[in-house]
Design a protein that fits this description.
The complex is a heterodimer of chains A (99) and B (738). Chain A contains three helices and four strands. Chain A is of the alpha+beta class. In chain A, helix 2 packs across helix 3. By secondary structure, chain B is an alpha/beta fold. Among the domains of chain B are: 85 residues, Ubiquitin-like (UB roll) (Roll); 210 residues, 3-Layer(aba) Sandwich (Rossmann fold); 130 residues, Dimethylsulfoxide Reductase, domain 2; 25 residues, no CATH class. In chain B, strand 15, helix 9 and strand 16 form a beta-alpha-beta unit. The longest helix of chain B is centred in the first third of the chain and has 16 residues. The radius of gyration of chain B is 28 Å and the shape is globular. The chains are: A alpha+beta (99), B alpha/beta (738). The interface between A and B is medium-sized, with 30 and 32 residues.
């Protein structure tokens, strides 16, 4: 997790997670948040890491870069490790705002 | 007020804990079946017969009975016939019995109702034509439906005459019309906590009053006007203003505190004529506070109706185009870059405009999104990452289940009067116990004062001592800690949260489970929960930047020294209050009655307000102003209509558009949130005393500050400066212009 925490570029201003409180499709995202939240916050104190739970929503991650550019990726049914790598890919993508 | 709290305490001792009223609701038991008008109906045991009749679809007329009040059984209008009963029975005071046969539509019942009606009308004045209750009067309606068609009243002595009482600037009395149903007395005692409204005398001489000449000092007093089935208690500010049939009714949401009370806005033409409660059992039941009800006249005064541009030391009316161009030039000339562009979100900003403002400022490269509160320039102590850290997690409807409540730095009576009434209910019915750390206030329930400062809070959790409340707290099955929003506006905020979260985590089994969450933050501003949900907060680095361009969105509570004189300031809002004074450009927005927008209450519940009247003059809906500005600033936002904007809000947080429901954070993430708070590196809690954030309940925001009624209430109740008028003299004065 620490690698992901360190590899978040400074241009990333906000990461948002949508997930469901109960559904199995959100389990991986929840595990990821529980295990890596403090690590990510410790290395990126200025990063907003908004966790928004709502019943039945599709688990998703949104990333906002500087100047309001956003992209997102679906995390439905992924396990904790896959969530980490999907997020890693998302924050480090070269063509921001295209995805 | 001292006398009152002593009285509360005495009552509590007298009745013991657990039952502080004479009548309490019975716990739910097995269902029973009975027959009403030949129709079988199944209701829980202990249900009043009148409710069983309602369940069977038979309407029973009533005056004194009200579902949310104690049962009195004194009007006798609800008489029904029960098989094998020698006389008709009052269905409100009679429990439904299994197997009984009830008739609500027999000649005996008709005759009984007609008789009761005749007795009530014998002493009721025939002044319907000049009575404000006309058109919504239970007595009028029921005499038409159930009463006799002719009078037998030929008394030479005339009707009973009762002197009017002056209850203050809100409730107007006309006691001749009183039918002594005692709904107001029961409300004042059980819900509002004004135990000195009562009855004197018996029979024909029974009178309702305060015993001595004094005002009814309660923030809930307006509700007795709604409860009064006749025109004895009517509204002073609304006296002779309109008739119910000429009003357009719009269901909406109140924004003057963070409870999100459901209201009905009655308007005529472009004017809001009055505000009434709308029933929502999950939020405000059937009540609203007096500010919600009577601050509406503030919507008429001090309004910004046209864009204004500062020229020297005066404001010049301008076109929208000119005003927006001036802002563009102001932004360029100020040379503001990145975090030097600062936004301040006030108490009355709606969710749509907050979203638009955040998106626009993010596009301009700024993260400096601050809140209109002390310490609003730095990230909030609660954090905004996990929703359970800043919401009222317990839920408003569930707080009645708490057996021990610890209030930290909050006065629920003024910050959330509706929540306070629920506490009064649980105090009376369930014998809940309350402790307070913070500034004292005249409470409507018994409180044990445990301390004044953050340090006292820490001490209470580490060494609770041997006080009565401390003992109860240790044993409580459903303990509840409520931290007031003002605590986070002091330097001790993080320390208090740390102590609280440690305590909650150490007692997880009692505080956090699937049924109960005993950790709640009480917000007091309507926009705050929405701002946190959106992530409308500054970053740690942005707070150290000196702003050059400031955008005030409904911000009227800030400290003027936080605005550098060299900066370019834009104010967007509906009232010319503090914010407009410091502005270079004022943009007229709409008030809450003039726009259909989303409001997130302190529980995180999304509710949709609705447009009752059009915005005055050239003012516009707030999010549209910001959308237009984004175009002028060459950063167009990707949404053109409100549906696209709400799609964007879904992308930010689905909870913002899940209307009328509450998305409760899961227990796991709630624990994570508490862990984050408990591991916070923070300085020691100081011994500085907590201060009440609301000194004057009736003047808290631009709308209530502009309201004449609220000014009168502030004078009468907050300052205690009210000279009871000679009521009969007052009546003649009113009659002259009626």
């Amino acid at each position: 997790m620490t690698t992901l925490a360190r590899s978040i570029p400074r241009t990333v201003k906000e990461i948002r997670f949508h997930l469901c409180q109960t559904s199995p499709a959100s389990r991986g995202v929840r595990q990821f948040i529980l295990s890596s939240y403090s690590g990510i916050k410790a290395s990126n104190p200025d990063l907003k890491f908004l966790v928004r739970e709502a019943a039945g929503v599709e688990p998703k991650a949104f990333v906002r870069w500087e100047r309001g550019v956003e992209s997102s990726t679906g995390l439905s049914g992924l396990n904790e490790k896959d969530v980490a790598s999907a997020l890693n890919q998302l924050v480090n993508q070269q063509t921001v705002g295209k995805a | 007020m001292f006398a009152r709290s002593r009285f509360v305490a005495r009552r509590a001792i007298k009745f013991g804990s657990g039952s502080r009223t004479l009548s309490t609701t019975l716990p739910r038991r097995a269902d029973i079946t009975l027959t009403v008008d030949g129709k079988e109906v199944t209701v829980p045991q202990g249900t009043a017969l009148i409710q069983a009749c309602e369940a069977a679809g038979a309407t029973v007329p009533r005056f004194c009975y009200h579902d949310r009040l104690a049962i009195a059984g004194n009007c006798r209008m609800c008489l029904v016939e029960v098989e094998r009963s020698p006389k008709p029975v009052a269905s409100c005071a009679m429990p439904a019995m299994p197997g009984s046969k009830v008739f609500t539509n027999t000649p005996l019942v008709h005759k009984a109702r007609e008789g009761v009606m005749e007795f009530l009308l014998a002493n009721h004045p025939l002044d319907c034509a000049i009575c404000d209750q006309g058109g919504e009067c239970d007595l009028q309606d029921q005499s038409m439906r159930y009463g006799s068609d002719r009078t037998r009243f030929h008394e030479i002595t005339g009707k009973r005459a009762v002197e009017n009482k002056d209850l203050g600037p809100i409730v107007k009395t006309s006691m001749n019309r009183c039918i002594q149903c005692t709904r107001c007395v029961r409300f004042a005692n059980d819900v509002a906590g004004v135990e000195d409204l009562g009855t004197t005398g018996r029979g024909n001489d029974l009178q309702i009053g305060m015993y001595v000449e004094k005002v009814m000092d309660s923030e809930m007093s307006g509700n007795i006007i709604d409860l009064c089935p006749v025109g004895a208690l009517t509204s002073k500010p609304y006296a002779f203003q309109a008739r119910p049939w000429e009003l357009k009714k719009t269901e909406s949401i109140d924004v003057l505190d963070a409870v999100g009370s459901n209201i009905r806005i009655d308007s005529r033409g472009v004017q809001v004529m009055r505000i009434q409660p709308k029933i929502n059992d999950e939020v405000n039941e059937e009540w609203i506070n007096d500010k919600t009800r009577y601050a509406y006249d503030g919507l008429k005064y001090q309004r910004l109706t046209t864009p204004l541009v500062r020229e020297g030391d005066r404001f010049v009316p301008a076109t929208w185009e000119h005003a927006l161009e001036t802002i563009r030039h102001g932004l360029i000339n100020s040379g503001a870059k990145g975090d030097e562009i600062k936004a301040v979100a006030g108490h009355l900003a709606d969710t749509e405009s907050l979203t638009t403002l955040k998106d626009l400022f993010n596009k301009l490269g700024s993260e400096n999104l601050t809140l209109d509160q002390p310490f609003g320039d730095s990230p909030p102590a609660t954090g905004v990452d996990l929703r359970s850290n800043y919401l009222f997690n317990t839920g408003i409807e569930n707080i009645e289940e708490a057996d021990a409540v610890l209030l930290i730095g909050t006065n629920p009576r003024h910050e959330a009067a509706i929540i306070n009434t629920r506490f009064r209910k649980s105090f009376l019915r369930r014998g809940a116990n309350f402790g307070l750390i913070g500034e004292t206030f005249p409470s409507t329930f018994e409180l044990e004062h445990l301390g004044q400062s953050a340090k006292d809070a820490e001490t209470f959790f580490s060494k609770p001592g041997n006080g009565t409340f401390a003992k109860i707290w240790k044993e409580a099955k459903k303990p509840l800690i409520i931290v007031g929003s003002a605590v986070m506006e002091t330097k001790d905020g993080a320390a208090v949260l740390k102590a609280v979260s440690k305590h909650v985590l150490a007692n997880q089994a009692r505080f956090l489970n699937q049924e109960w969450n005993g950790f709640s933050i009480l917000q007091r501003a309507a926009s705050r929960a929405a701002a946190y949900d959106l992530g409308f907060t500054p970053s740690t680095t942005s707070s150290s930047v000196k702003p050059k361009f400031i955008y005030l969105l409904n911000a009227d509570e800030f400290d003027p020294t936080t605005i550098p004189s060299s900066s370019f300031v834009v104010y967007q809002g509906h009232h010319g209050d503090l914010g407009a004074q410091y502005a270079d450009v004022c943009l007229p927005g709409s008030a809450y009655t003039e726009k259909s927008t989303t409001w997130i209450n302190t529980e995180g519940r999304a509710q949709l307000g609705r447009t009752a009247v059009p915005p005055p003059g050239a003012s516009r809906e707030d999010w549209k102003i910001l959308r237009a500005l984004s175009e002028v600033l060459n950063q167009p936002l990707p949404y053109d209509d409100v549906l696209a904007l709400r799609d964007r809000m879904w992308d930010i947080s689905p909870t913002l558009v899940r209307y009328d429901s509450r998305e409760i954070p899961s227990v796991e993430l709630t624990k994570l949130g508490l862990q984050v708070l408990s591991e916070n590196k923070t300085s020691q809690a100081s011994g500085e005393k907590f201060k009440k954030p609301i000194e004057d309940f009736y003047r808290t925001d631009p709308i209530s500050r502009a309201s004449v009624t609220m000014a009168a209430c502030s004078k009468a109740f907050t300052k205690g400066d009210y000279v009871p008028a000679d009521v009969d003299e007052g009546a003649t004065a009113q009659a002259s212009y009626a």
